Fold:
Amino acid sequence: MSKPFASSADLDAKAETLEVLGDGVYALTAEGDPNVGAVEAEDFVVCIEARATPVAAHAWLRQLREHTDKPVRYLVLTHYHAVRTLGASAFDVPEIIAHERTAFLIAERGEADWASELGRMPRLFRSPESIPGLTWPTLTFSDRLTIPLGGRRGTLELAYCGRGHTAGDIVVWLPAHGVLFAGDLVESAAALYTGDAFHTDWATSTLDAVAAFGATALVGGRGPVARGSDAVGAAIAQTRRFLDVLRAEVGAVHARDGTLREAFAAAHAALAPTYGGWPIFEHCLPFDVQRCWDELDGIDWPPIWTPERDREVWAQLQD
Ligand SMILES: [Zn+2]
Structure:
């Protein structure tokens, strides 16, 4: 019997946990569903990630409003993926901040990605008819952007660490608390999605740059918050290892002129003992192997995922 496509059969609601990581620092995790966060300034709030729909975003904002009634001034998007951007209208903010390549990717492939992610992860798209359209960043940057928080709260630093999960990921660093919101560049006890990734950059210089912040708490893209330097180091290390094993296994099959199916089988066998029980492992791996293979073929810029291409790759590898 063939496996259900991606996460299309994953329909059970996940338990959400709002964690307070310091005075005015919040993360909402949900058993492997995409995480969101917020940081209080003196007079306003910065929200991090928007969820898949305005209805899903409002549910998060209701929880945040139990802690603060300050207005949300900035919405930060760590990258372009639909499940993190399409709920943006719920925040009703003057500024939506992202990397300049994220703005480019939304223009280039936002529509296709919306359709692709809706098909892959329908449960995350609560009331999809509430999405008014694509989310357009109003403020973009290439390297670093600082938001002063006022009073004694210090600054919030938005930083580009190199190509990784996508061409335009950023991290959000709160030096006063040692908290790093890493987006999908780091996963803590969740499998990696690398369908739009630059595997070599991500596994080397980009994760080195992420580690260099020396965070003592890390909110990854999915999974629980890593608390303490050891846990942060472990989350980064297991992210790197996933990429290293994927590159090695797919690379070996590619080098001997094997097939994509053989590469998938090798990567699955090598990764499943450690990562197979983690959220979205079976969902992600066919797309991860395809992208890794494309990179080995010399295709630098990731081909666009569409519902049709999703199903083709799935049928080829996960039946
Ligand atoms: Zn993502």
